[in-house]
Amino acid sequence: MPTRPPSMGYPATLSEVARLAGVSLPTASKAMNGRGDVAAATRKRVLDAAEQIGFTPNQLARSLLVGRSGTVGLLTSDLEGRFVLPILMGAEDAFGAGQVNVFLCDARGDHIREQHHLKALLNRRVDGIIVVGRQTDPRPSLGHDLPVPVVYAYAPSDDPDDLSLTPDNEAGSRLAVEHLIACGRSRIAHITGDPSYAAAQDRVRGVQQALAAAGLELHGEAMFSEWSERWGRDAAAVLLDRHPEVDAIACGSDQIARGVLDTLRDLGRLVPDDVAVVGYDNWEVLTTNARPELTSIDANLQQLGREAALALFRAMDSSQPEPKGVQYKPVRLVIRGSTIAHR
Amino acid sequence: MPTRPPSMGYPATLSEVARLAGVSLPTASKAMNGRGDVAAATRKRVLDAAEQIGFTPNQLARSLLVGRSGTVGLLTSDLEGRFVLPILMGAEDAFGAGQVNVFLCDARGDHIREQHHLKALLNRRVDGIIVVGRQTDPRPSLGHDLPVPVVYAYAPSDDPDDLSLTPDNEAGSRLAVEHLIACGRSRIAHITGDPSYAAAQDRVRGVQQALAAAGLELHGEAMFSEWSERWGRDAAAVLLDRHPEVDAIACGSDQIARGVLDTLRDLGRLVPDDVAVVGYDNWEVLTTNARPELTSIDANLQQLGREAALALFRAMDSSQPEPKGVQYKPVRLVIRGSTIAHR
DNA sequence: CTGTTAGCGCTTTCAC
DNA sequence: GTGAAAGCGCTAACAG
């Protein structure tokens, strides 16, 4: 006797499909999944039957049986941060192609909430987890007693036994300054954001390296404060007052660069003729609408998300020892009118 | 004989907990879930045993049995759009509080991909779906032959039998213009974005309504083009050339408003003394860093996401007929220095 | 090629 | 109070 009549309302089950097609349940299963050897005619009957009653295979049952859910967790510390979203997109994209679905969890910077979400993800038997932080400062590891692999993106784990993918900030500002030098600038200053951010420190280091390699020195001290347009405006005013000879300014963010451009304009300094300006982050809304358009450093965050997904895939499939440690991913320079004039 | 020895490596099962606690499987289940009548001492033994072997209840099995997964799908048409994220945050937040986890799917504006994701979500037996669009233009319905309730957020469904939540754009620009009038302005112009967007048309209508209610007329035609700073700059230049008497400009977006501010500055017009400016969207990065800070309209998107989640909750729980149709959600005016001078 | 038998991990009647 | 039995919907061996 059928457990349940093949009525509408409930999603159809595979046994209903089997009955309708006049085959046994396992045969229907094989036919649906293209498994085993099933006569072509039989397969067609099954597929037609499934189509007819609108059969939707229950992944929950399948997952329970095969011991993998085909899902991963994306644990973010802060969805608001504008660096998280592109990473999310890249990861979701890469997973989607592999039939994997993504649970999104936002811990909003709270450790308790993070633990809570982690537990929920494990209860749901995710096959892996990507942890996305909002800054490049190292963050606490989730630990190693987890039953699934974990990859850290943007914010690296503070445990060297974890795998972390983060943009190479040092290389980024090195690129920026090398570009300025290549454009013939030699009196270069640096205005950046909050000194408590690893990103600020790393970028200053990159600037210093590029200058040193060219036998140059920074004009004035590196100027730290907040990651805002306002600070960019104020800092540029002070800088040009005290170092009017400056012919290029490397900025720690596009926001700061936008402020710098504003002040230069107010002071009647032409960009890029008198002073070249380079930003950081390549935030298109800001860079492509600036006057002139802003040269900037792009961290390829979407690519970073994709790579994190692929690394997790590998760790999930092979359960071989994953590579460990922090991988610094290459960034790229996007040249626009703030460093090279159009003609 | 136990199916599997209680060894490490595999996640512990409830039957292992039961064995360790010296009770039967059902009793362990009841103890864990606080169900039925279980002796306090027994419950403690079970909980201790669970703790000891690090038991993690398998939600997959539970879901299969009880017929609800405790998950929902968040189907976005485009993660990139900056209106989607706050809605996502609000929804994730509201669901998280209810022990519900969220599958994130980005269709990237592609119908095929959307159908693909929809199917995946149904296979995973989500209990409901929120569809988040990136524009306020109506979008095709997912249909009504779905086994789970659906709520549309931001982009309403084109089917009046669906429930949609979208910001009230008309009311928004009405608020903006009423504010300008209250500030003593009477020669008001309107610069907005792409006329193919419903948002542009709705906002123009709101502007007209507020002007008409005060017995005023728009100065010049409403100016349409793209949602960019650049257009804001160019449009403002033209506008002030042809209508130098204008004393206020209502803009269709904050980006446009930023461009307008730039041009006003270039022309030596004081804001807000000579010309007041109001933006739209309250995109903080743009509004709080403008000179002066930009008055704008906030669509309360996070709240919108939260409400969509709550509406979906209701529809999921009660399976009573959900309310139908498009609900226009209130927006709010955020006053800053571009309309009222500090003293 | 197809059907029978088992069982994934858990909850839920229902006797004891 | 507690345990035995019966599945949720599906797949992975095996026999036939």
Spatial separation of the terminal alpha carbons of chain A: 83 Å
Total domain modules of chain A = 3
Outline the low-pLDDT stretches of chain A: 1-7
What is the CATH third-level topology name of the largest domain in chain A? Answer: Rossmann fold
Measured on Cα atoms, how large is the radius of gyration of chain A? 27 Å
Which protein chains make the most extensive interface, counting residues with beta carbons within 8 Å of the other chain's beta carbons? A-B, 49 and 49 residues
Q: Major sheet of chain A: order of its strands? A: 2-1-3-4-5-10
Taken from the alpha-carbon principal axes, the silhouette of chain A is elongated
Mean residue pLDDT of chain A: 93
What is the string of helix and strand elements of chain A? HHHHEHEHEEEHEHHEHEHEHEE
Strand content of chain A: 5-15%
Structural class by sheet pairing and helices of chain A? alpha/beta
State the fourth-level CATH superfamily of the largest domain in chain A: Response regulator
Q: Major beta sheet of chain A, specifics?
A: 6 strands, parallel
Level-1 CATH class name of the largest domain in chain A: Alpha Beta
Oligomeric state as shown: homodimer
Helix content of chain A: 40-55%
Number of strand segments of chain A: 11
Structure commentary:
- Two copies of one chain form a homodimer.
- The first copy, chain A, is α/β, with parallel strands linked by helices and about 350 residues long.
- The first copy, chain A, contains twelve helices and eleven strands.
- The first copy, chain A, is elongated and about 85 Å long.
- Residues about 1-5 of chain A have low confidence and may be disordered.
- The longest helix of chain A is centred in the C-terminal third of the chain and has 18 residues, at about 300-320.
- Helix content of chain A is about 40%, strand content about 15%.
- The interface between A and B is large, with 49 and 49 residues.
- Chain A binds a DNA duplex (16 and 16 nucleotides) through α2 and α4.
